[in-house]
Amino acid sequence: MFSDEHRYHTRLKKYWDMLRGEKPFPTENSIDPDDLQDIWDSCFLISIDDVTHRMGYRYSYMGSHLIEAYGDQLNSGDVSSRLISMNGSPMVKKFDEVIREKKPLIDESEFVNGSNINIRYRTCILPLGTDDGKVTHILGCMRWKMY
């Protein structure tokens, strides 16, 4: 079902591995969207800091293909606000797991979007952070299909 989508996750994970080298993970400012231009519209970047940690996660970037998955009548601010407010959502729990474990995670699941359409997705969620092992950001890629 996700044969083409799997390539995106493999590409993002290989890029992440290349940037991190021997470190636990790369830094957020080492990510260059131009290096990922063929998949960047399916990517997201989440910032984590003391202020946003109290409120949840803050999407610094959300690709246009992801905005479409959540309902094409929404803009990136609407989608981000909806996702941030879903603190108990399965996706937020996956973000928590990536931060806690400090390891990449591949997840496959489904949801009903704002247009009442069933969406199946596969996502790759990768920690970004400091050389001393603190996760400061999450980089991810999500491919999806409606059914």
Description:
The chain is α+β, with helices and mostly antiparallel strands and 147 residues long. It has five helices and five strands, in the order αβαβαααβββ. 35% of the residues lie in helices and 29% in strands. It has one domain (3-146): Beta-Lactamase. A hairpin with a 5-residue loop joins β4 (118-129) and β5.
Helix content: 25-40%
CATH superfamily: PAS domain
Strand content: 25-35%
Radius of gyration: 15 Å
Unreliable runs: 1-5, 84-88
Task: Briefly characterize the structure.
This protein is an alpha+beta fold and 147 residues long. The chain has helices at 3-20, 50-55, 64-69, 76-84, 90-101, and strands at 43-47, 58-62, 105-112, 118-129, 135-146.
Keywords, separated by commas or semicolons:
single chain; 147 residues; alpha+beta; Beta-Lactamase; five-stranded antiparallel β-sheet; 5 helices; 5 strands; 29% strand; globular; disordered N terminus
Task: Detail the topology: elements first, then pairings.
Layout: H1 3-20, E1 43-47, H2 50-55, E2 58-62, H3 64-69, H4 76-84, H5 90-101, E3 105-112, E4 118-129, E5 135-146
